[in-house]
Amino acid sequence: MACVRQFLCFLLIILMTPLLTTFAAATSNISLPGCPNKCGSILIPYPFGMGNGCDRKGFEITCDESMTHPRAILFRDVHPSMDVELINVNITTGEARVYNKNISYKCFDVTNSNFNISMGITGLPWRFPFSYEQNKFLAIGCSTLAFIVSYRNDNYFSGCVSTCFSPNSTTGDGGSCNGMGCCQAAIPSDLYFYAVYWHDNPNYAGGFNLCSYAVLVEDDWYKFQDQDLQGLNFYKRNKNGVPVVLNWAIRDNGTCQDGLMKSHNTACRSNHSFCYSTSNGKGYLCQCRQGYEGNPYLTGGCIDIDECKSLDKYPCSSNAICINSDGNFTCSCPKGTYGNPYVNDGNCIKIPEKFSYHGRVVLASILGVATILILVILAVMYVQRKKRMEEKEEYQKYYQMMNDHLRVFSRKQLENATNNFNETNVFGAGGQGKVYKGLLENNLVIAIKKARAVEETQREEFVNEIILLSQINHKNIVRLLGCCLEVNIPMLVYEFVPNGTVYQLLHRNKTIPISLGTRLNIAWESAVALDYIHSSISRSIIHGDIKSANILLDADYTVKVSDFGASSVVPVDEIIELVHFSQGYLDPECLYTQIITNNSDVYSFGVVILELLTRKEAVYLDKKGEKQALATSFLSKARTNEHHKMLDVDLLSNNGKVIEILDKICAIASQCLSPKGDDRPTMSQIVEELQKLARLHNSTLGF
Ligand SMILES: *[C@@H]1O[C@H](CO)[C@@H](O)[C@H](O)[C@H]1NC(C)=O
Ligand SMILES: *[C@@H]1O[C@H](CO)[C@@H](O)[C@H](O)[C@H]1NC(C)=O
Ligand SMILES: *[C@@H]1O[C@H](CO)[C@@H](O)[C@H](O)[C@H]1NC(C)=O
Ligand SMILES: *[C@@H]1O[C@H](CO)[C@@H](O)[C@H](O)[C@H]1NC(C)=O
Ligand SMILES: *[C@@H]1O[C@H](CO)[C@@H](O)[C@H](O)[C@H]1NC(C)=O
Ligand SMILES: *[C@@H]1O[C@H](CO)[C@@H](O)[C@H](O)[C@H]1NC(C)=O
Ligand SMILES: *[C@@H]1O[C@H](CO)[C@@H](O)[C@H](O)[C@H]1NC(C)=O
Ligand SMILES: *[C@@H]1O[C@H](CO)[C@@H](O)[C@H](O)[C@H]1NC(C)=O
C-alpha cells in the first residue's frame, strides 16, 4: 500500500516538475532586488526604478496613485511642471512611450473671425530625445499650414500643409495623412525640444472646419476621421495626450565602443551582456548576448534561454533530442534516425531496419560508392608506384653524377655499419637530428648525419653542392666521405672525429685547466678552416652554424670544423630557427635581413672566441640565475673596460706579455661582434692576427 502511495507521489512530482520550471522562468526579475517592478500595470525595468536606490541616476519614476489608476511619472525629479506620463518602457530597444499632452491648436471664432491659438512649446529636460524613427509631426485641418521648429538642431524647420474644400474632399475615415484633412512630416535626430508655429492665414475652410491641430506623435498611431475636423472633437478625445516615443540611453561618463566597455563603471552589469552606441543622442544601451534574455542592466540579469521550451522561435523536431546549454542548445536526431533535426515537424526519419526496397537502394548506393572508392585507391597506388619508379630512375642519374666524384653508399651498407641505426650508435644530436657512429667493413669509422629533405626541383643543385663539399680537403675540416641517396632524406657520411667538441672541452668539466696556448691554437685553427672555406675555393661557402659544438677535436687536439655548408644544404629560415636553437650565436643582423653571409660566420666565431676566453656558454646563467647572452654582457662590460672580470681565472696572470695577448684577443672578439656586418674583420684578417698572437705566445712562453 505504502509502496503504491510512494509511486503516485513520485509520479506527481515528475508531472509537476516542468510546470514548476516554466513558472520560474517566466518570472525573472526586471528590477533591482527589493524594489517594486510595477506601477499599476506598467512594468518598470531597471535602470528605471521607483523609490530610493531603485533607479539609476536620471531614470527616476514616481508612481502617482492619487488618481483612479496609478500613473508612472517621468521627470518629476526635475520639476513638477515637467511631468510626463509613461505608457511603457522597452528594455531591448531603449524606447519609452509617453503621453504628449501639448496638442497645439488654432480655432476660429465664427462670429468675430478671431482665433485662439496654442503655440505648444514642448520640451523634455534634455534627457531623452524624441525618436526620429518612431514619431511624425502630425497636423489636422482643412486650411492648415503648421511648422515644427527646433532651435537646438541647426534651427531645424519643417512643416506640412493640409487642405480640403468640402467635407467630402478629404482622405476619408482611416485614410493616410497625405494633405487632404491631415498631413505629416519627419523630424530630425537629437530633438529634445520643439515649438509649433502656425502660418498666419486668416482664411478658413467655410463653416465645417474651425479648428486645426498639430502635435508630435507616434507614427501610425493616428487614423484620420472626418469628425476630427468638426468642433474640438480631436482635442477632447485626446485630453490625456497622444503617444510619443522617446529614446532613452545611458548617458554618463562611460563610453561604449561597439561591445567593448571602456569604463568598469558600465551600466551593462550582467555577465552575458554587451553594449552598443545609440544613434539618437550620445550614449549607449546594453543587450543580452545571443542565447540569453532578461535585463542586461542587472547583475545576473541575462538568463539563459531554454530554447527547448520555445520551439516556435527555436525549431527542433519533436522526435529529436533537444538539449539546452548555457547560451545555446543542440538538437540532434536520435540513434537509428537521420535528417535535419532543426525543423519542427518530425524531420528525423527512421533508418529502415530490414532491407526494404528503400534499404536495398541505400545498400546499392553504398556498394557503388565503395567500388568507386576502391578503384580510386588503386589508381592512386598505380600513379604512386609509377612515380617511385621514375624517382628511382632519376636517382640513378644522380648516382652516376655523384659516383664520379665521391663514394655513394647504399642504404644496406649504412644499416650494417650502424647496426640498423641502433640507438646505442647515436653519439650526438643537433638541431638537424641524430648523428650516428658507424663502422664500415674496412674498419673505417664514420659519422652519419641526415641532410634536409630535398625537393625535386632542387635535387640537381643539392647533388652539385654535395660534390663541392666533398672536394674540400683541409686538415682542419671534417671530411665528407660520401652520401647515401637511396632514402627520402639523403644521408651524409663524414670521417669520424674521436675527441669530442670544443663545447665539451670547455663546459663539461670545468675543473680541468686549459692552457692559453691550447685555446689560442683552437681559435687559430678554426679561423684557418673558416678562412679557407670563405675565400680559397672557387666559390665561397658559408658555414652558417658556427658554434663550439660544431668544432670537433681530433686525437691530438687538432681542430676539425664540422657541418660545413649548412646554409646551402639547409634552407635559410630553417637555419635561423636552428641557430635560434643554439642560442647566443646568431648574428643579429641576420634576423632582419634573413640573409646569411660570411659576416654572420664572423659574428658567431666572435662568440666562440669569447667562450674560449671565459669558459662561459653562449647563453649562460649569471650569479642571480638570470639568462645572459655572452656576447651582449661581454660588450657591455667592455664599454666600461671591466671585461677582464669575465675572463676565466685560469688565464689571469701578472705576465705583461700574457696581458697583452689577452687584450688583443678581446679586441678581435669585440670587432667580430660589431653590430654591422661590414664593420667586422674578414676571416683572413683574423687568421693573420691570431697567428701573430700564437707566435708571440710560443716565443715568450716557450710552447
Ligand atoms: C526575484 O526573483 C527571485 C527568484 O527568481 C525571487 O525569490 C525574488 O523574490 C524576486 N525579487 C523581486 C523583488 O521580485
Ligand atoms: C520591445 O521591442 C521589441 C522590438 O520591437 C519587441 O520585439 C519586444 O516585444 C518589445 N518588448 C516589450 C517589453 O515591449
Ligand atoms: C477662445 O478662448 C476664449 C477664452 O478662453 C473662449 O471663450 C472661446 O470660446 C474660445 N474660442 C474658440 C473658438 O475656441
Ligand atoms: C506643454 O506646454 C506648456 C505650455 O506651453 C508647457 O508649460 C509645458 O512644459 C509643456 N509640456 C511639456 C511636457 O513639454
Ligand atoms: C458631398 O457629399 C454630399 C452628400 O453627403 C453631396 O450632396 C455633395 O454633392 C458632395 N459634394 C461633392 C463636391 O462631391
Ligand atoms: C563622471 O566623471 C566625474 C569626474 O570624472 C566623476 O566625479 C563622476 O562620478 C563620474 N560619473 C559617473 C556616473 O561615472
Ligand atoms: C560573473 O563573472 C564573474 C567573473 O567571471 C564571476 O565571478 C561571477 O560569479 C559571475 N556572475 C554571475 C552572476 O554569473
Ligand atoms: C550554438 O551552437 C552551434 C552548434 O553547436 C554553433 O554553431 C553556434 O555558433 C552556437 N551559438 C552560440 C551563440 O554560441
TrEMBL record:
Q: Where is the EGF-like domain?
A: 304-340
Q: Extract the Pfam families matched here.
A: EGF (PF00008), GUB_WAK_bind (PF13947), Pkinase (PF00069)
Q: Name one GO cellular component term.
A: plasma membrane
- Single Gene Ontology MF annotation: ATP binding
Indicate whether Transmembrane helix appears among the record's keywords.
yes
Q: Where is the signal peptide?
A: 1-26
Q: Which domain of life is it from?
A: Eukaryota
Q: Does the keyword Nucleus apply?
A: no
The membrane spanning regions, by residue number, are 361-383
Enumerate the Gene Ontology biological process terms: cell surface receptor signaling pathway
Task: Please name the InterPro entries in this protein's record.
Answer: EGF, EGF-like_Ca-bd_dom, EGF-type_Asp/Asn_hydroxyl_site, EGF_Ca-bd_CS, Kinase-like_dom_sf, Prot_kinase_dom, Ser/Thr_kinase_AS, WAK-like
Membrane topology, as annotated, equals: Single-pass type I membrane protein
Where does it localize?
Answer: Membrane
Q: What is its main location?
A: membrane
Protein kinase domain: from which residue to which, for each copy? 421-693
Q: What are the alphabetically sorted keywords of the record? A: ATP-binding, Disulfide bond, EGF-like domain, Glycoprotein, Kinase, Membrane, Nucleotide-binding, Repeat, Serine/threonine-protein kinase, Signal, Transferase, Transmembrane, Transmembrane helix
**Which PANTHER family has this protein been placed in?**
OS12G0615300 PROTEIN, WALL-ASSOCIATED RECEPTOR KINASE-LIKE 21
Q: What is the name listed in the Swiss-Prot or TrEMBL entry for this protein?
A: Wall-associated kinase family protein
Organism of this sequence: Rhynchospora pubera
